[in-house]
Amino acid sequence: MGCGLDRLYADPSILRFELEADGEDACRLTFTNIFDGRDSATPLAVGWHAGLDLLAALLDGRKAESAPWEGLQAAYEHAFGSAA
After folding, report:
1. Cα-Cα end-to-end distance for the chain
2. Is there a cis peptide before residue 68, judged by omega within 30 degrees of 0?
3. In the chain, what are the domain boundaries?
4. Is-contact 15 52, C-beta < 8 A?
């Protein structure tokens, strides 16, 4: 059984965090960011990707390293077919 949290961030953006059991000693986080405007897609994706990578490192007991912003930026621009 899981639980969810919807958070109104900046109208009309919504952040959704869902936690669900994944075995006996783990849980899975599913994160969704619903927002208006394609121009926001790349910077939001880069920021959340980097932040969630840091969270994963800390939860795994690893040293949190700075995210490779430039590489993420280029990858998301390519994936979304845009330049921010």
Report:
1. 39
2. no
3. 1-36, 40-84
4. no
What tens digit of pLDDT does each residue of 31-74 get? Answer: 999 888 888 899 999 999 999 988 889 989 998 887 677 789 99
Task: Please state, in angstroms and rounded to a whole number, the distance separating the CA atoms of residues 46 and 18.
Answer: 20
**Residue 41 in contact with residue 76, Cβ under 8 Å?**
yes
Whether 84 contacts 39, CB under 8 Å:
yes
Q: What is the pTM of this model?
A: 0.76
Among 63, 66, 70, 55, CA closest to 19: 55
Tell me the helices (H) and strands (E) count for the chain, helix number first.
Answer: 2, 3
Give every CB contact of residue 83 below 8 A, 6+ residues apart in sequence: 42, 77
Q: Which tokens go with 84? A: 């921010």
